[in-house]
């Protein structure tokens, strides 16, 4: 047995080997040590190898999926080795014959299909990057849904595309593995290197054609060699990991960078599109917008947020569909109730195609298609938009398959086909006959037991069953002597004696057992055969089912966005080919929701107008204190543009968006110590990417450029950056800064306007109004914000002294830095803090208002009690 294990393990280096032994997957040697630590399970030993104990650990087969998920998340790959025959079949070859075993599947992050291993509302992409001469391409597939895409892209765009797709695993040529390791690890993606032969475009084309049963790729469109290479590498990897059992994939769809808004990784992170900065969906735009009723709709929503469109017709078609739902809310609610009943058709179909499905997947297809027809009935009489009309046309046409599955399956089938009991009574006459024999046989057993009790007078006599003896008669040792004596000894045949019981059989019981067992096994065999027939019928309709699933996703997303717009008071944006960017009453959707949930305070809406003429920039230079809401204002306008182009209503009272080609955001401070980058270096790298890539259709938001270095260095960089955006990039931009000197640019550069976030001072404290107005801030209120943060009073008082001295020196001019330092003096002993301001107590305030001569004795006594109560509080 160990020789067999070592042979299989040698063929799968780099993966943990789950070696099936009965009801357990067992691991040995270094695999056992690594798995025991990763899974926190006991490490034992079994036998010896080369004189040393063999480490061993194992997990139950029935609970293997949970352990697989843990291992995959910790970066392991797992080769699942199954028994290819039963022990009984192995013994036919010889007494010491080893059960045949082989690896049936290599489990990797990008090749998961089980519901328990996947997030239902997210895609699980496996991607491949190929480079052929001077051209590159990226292909990606989700084998759990069948989605298959490819696009040409320059290598410099690989990072942004990986940020958009978030694949679990990326396949590259072994020669490129070390080169791309740093980039890929930044996104937490598993990197897999394949031999160069897997990327050969000639053999790749043949693999694609064989998979889809076509003679030439022209049936799917025109592809460059790099695209064919990337797609072929994906298929090659699937053949390796699925051991030749390829998933049901849809024809590859070619994508183009020119059709979607380009968003780099830093911008996605800063805007918290699909994940909050703290991790997870909560607090992200996706988390707020997801009101979808189906898993397919949720996955489509994430794709739309990640890839807003730049094609005006597509955007307006999507907005029309949302408007239909918005204007017909009663119908929308009825449709959403139906949508909630629809299972995940894509993943059920994928599991069936890979032989990892079961009766519940058959029922999921049946139920999903039936509810799809219900959707079509509800939408049929309506005056629909183009997108919804196209979707409705893909919902129907499944009546024969639905009828077949409805007749064949029970309402609630079991999980596994081997358990039986999923085929409905009356569907198959042969099955009904076998079940009748099986079930009536059990009744006969009960009757036979009653007869034996009556004949022998032994009330404790039982007929039982186990896997070793089959059916047997069991009684206590006390009564056994009676059964072994005449006249019962001729009927009852002794089989086994245990510590407290004696077991017998009879000729009649043995014959009945054979009949019952054959009937039960026969019924199971019939059900397995029917399962395969039903599965085949479903797979023959896979293309149509896939189109229905896509239609469900479109309808679900449109209606969920309509429901969201109604609940949150959003409006339909006007989107066109102009360079307009005019928003009235704009709000940050995530912050608005958080305020409502935490404090109930209303969000202060603000206008923004970055509309620009052709070939001209329009930039707002935003000043104001920290905590006043500058970053929120910047982000909300970027999110409104993104939401409009994904085809959603937006949080504003009015919005007019000219198509945005690129979205760039440089907001917040962070470092990258692992790559040797300080906070300032990260800031400069991200700023450089913007200035080198942004075009005149881009929307750019920049926050506090240059703050990570000395004042004059930072001001110089920020000044030059704004000039470059204006003169070279000609972008629409929001530029927030604390450098008030930059407000002078508004008078020098056409299209640059000053705006500020208003604040109010009251008795030495600053009150944030969160209102954005035209004009420039006179100061930053940094000391007041520090006071709000809770810095000690002595520090705040000292800061005011230093600030006054610095501002006086700047006003008077000519004062050198050394002179100001000597005058303060900044670096001498810190002076004693000024005495704290004594606040008047309530008692003192009351006493100040009293005129003793006007008090009666009774009033004076009442006043004493009142003051005493005030003193206690």
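^ Assign residues to that structure.
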């Amino acid at each position: 047995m160990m020789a067999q294990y070592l042979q299989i393990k040698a063929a799968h280096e780099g993966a943990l080997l789950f070696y099936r032994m009965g009801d357990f997957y067992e691991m040995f040697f270094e695999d056992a040590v690594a798995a025991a630590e990763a899974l926190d399970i006991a490490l034992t030993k079994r036998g010896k190898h080369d004189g040393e104990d063999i480490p061993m650990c194992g997990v139950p087969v029935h609970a293997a999926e949970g352990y697989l998920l843990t291992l995959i998340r910790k970066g392991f790959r797992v080769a699942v080795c199954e028994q290819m025959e039963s022990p009984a079949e192995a013994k036919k070859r010889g007494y010491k014959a080893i059960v045949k075993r082989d690896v049936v599947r290599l489990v990797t992050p990008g090749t998961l299909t089980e519901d328990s291993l996947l997030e239902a509302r997210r895609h699980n992409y496996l991607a491949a990057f190929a480079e052929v001469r001077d051209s590159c391409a990226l292909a990606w597939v989700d084998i759990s849904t069948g989605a298959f895409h490819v696009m040409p892209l320059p290598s410099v765009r690989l990072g942004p595309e990986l940020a958009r797709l978030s694949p679990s695993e990326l396949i590259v040529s072994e020669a490129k593995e070390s080169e791309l390791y740093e980039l890929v690890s930044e996104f937490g993606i598993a990197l897999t290197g394949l031999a160069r032969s897997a990327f050969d475009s000639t053999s790749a084309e043949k693999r694609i054609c064989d998979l889809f049963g076509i003679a030439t790729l022209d049936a799917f469109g025109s592809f460059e060699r790099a695209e064919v290479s990337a797609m072929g590498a994906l298929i090659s990897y699937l053949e390796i990991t699925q051991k030749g059992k390829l998933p049901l994939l849809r024809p590859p769809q070619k994508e183009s960078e020119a059709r979607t808004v380009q968003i780099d990784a830093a911008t996605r992170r800063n805007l918290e599109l699909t994940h909050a900065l703290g991790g997870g969906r909560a607090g992200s735009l996706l988390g707020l917008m997801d009101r979808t009723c189906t898993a397919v709709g949720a996955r489509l929503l994430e794709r739309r947020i990640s890839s807003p469109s730049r094609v005006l017709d597509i955007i307006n078609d999507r907005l029309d569909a949302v408007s239909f739902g918005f204007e017909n809310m009663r119908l929308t609610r009825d449709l959403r109730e139906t949508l909630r009943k629809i299972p995940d058709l894509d993943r059920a179909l994928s599991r069936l195609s890979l032989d990892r499905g079961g009766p519940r997947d058959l029922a999921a297809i049946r139920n999903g298609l039936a509810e799809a027809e219900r959707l079509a009935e509800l939408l049929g009489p309506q005056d629909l938009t183009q997108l919804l009309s196209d979707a409705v046309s893909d919902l129907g046409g499944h009546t024969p398959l639905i009828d077949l599955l409805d007749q064949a399956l029970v309402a609630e089938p079991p999980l596994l086909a081997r358990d039986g009991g999923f085929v409905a009574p009356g569907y198959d006459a042969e099955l009904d006959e076998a079940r009748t024999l099986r079930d009536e046989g059990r009744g006969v057993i009960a009757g036979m037991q009653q007869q034996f009790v009556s004949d022998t007078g032994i009330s404790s006599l039982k007929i039982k069953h186990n896997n070793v003896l089959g059916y047997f008669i069991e009684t206590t040792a006390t009564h056994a002597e009676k059964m072994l004596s005449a006249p019962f000894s001729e009927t009852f045949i002794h089989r086994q004696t245990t510590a407290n019981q004696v077991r017998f059989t009879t000729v009649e019981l043995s014959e009945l057992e054979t009949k019952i067992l054959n009937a039960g096994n026969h019924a199971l065999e019939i059900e397995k055969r029917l399962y395969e027939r039903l599965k085949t019928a479903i797979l023959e309709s896979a293309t149509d089912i896939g189109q229905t699933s896509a239609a469900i996703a479109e309808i679900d997303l449109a209606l969920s966005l309509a429901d969201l717009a109604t609940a949150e008071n959003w409006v339909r944006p006007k989107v066109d080919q102009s360079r307009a960017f005019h928003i009235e009453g704009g709000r940050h959707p995530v912050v608005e929701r958080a305020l409502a949930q935490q404090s109930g305070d209303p969000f202060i809406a603000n206008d923004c107008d970055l509309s620009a003429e052709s070939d001209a920039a329009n930039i707002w230079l935003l000043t104001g204190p920290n905590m006043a809401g500058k970053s929120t204002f910047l982000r909300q306008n970027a999110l409104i543009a993104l939401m409009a182009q994904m085809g959603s209503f937006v949080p504003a009272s009015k919005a007019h968006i000219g198509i945005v080609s690129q979205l760039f955001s440089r907001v917040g401070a962070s470092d990258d110590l692992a790559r040797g980058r300080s906070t300032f270096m990260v800031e400069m790298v991200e700023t450089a990417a913007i200035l080198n890539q942004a075009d005149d259709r881009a929307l750019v938001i920049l926050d506090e450029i240059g703050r990570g270095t000395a004042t004059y260095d930072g001001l110089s960089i920020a000044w030059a950056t704004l000039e470059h955006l204006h003169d070279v990039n000609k972008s629409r931009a929001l530029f927030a800064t604390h450098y008030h000197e930059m407000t002078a640019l508004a008078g020098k550069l056409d299209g640059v306007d000053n705006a500020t976030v208003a604040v109010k001072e009251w008795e030495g404290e600053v009150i944030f109004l969160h209102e954005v107005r035209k004009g420039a801030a006179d100061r930053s209120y940094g000391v007041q914000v520090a006071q709000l943060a809770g810095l000690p009073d002595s520090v705040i008082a000292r800061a005011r002294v230093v600030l006054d001295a610095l501002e006086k020196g700047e006003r008077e001019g000519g004062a050198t830095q050394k002179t100001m330092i000597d005058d303060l003096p900044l670096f001498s002993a810190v002076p004693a803090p000024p005495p704290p301001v004594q606040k008047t107590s309530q008692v003192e305030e009351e006493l100040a208002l009293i005129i003793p001569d006007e008090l009666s004795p009774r009033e004076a006594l009442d006043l004493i009690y009142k003051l005493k109560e005030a003193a206690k509080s």
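Residues 507-540 form the longest helix (34 residues).
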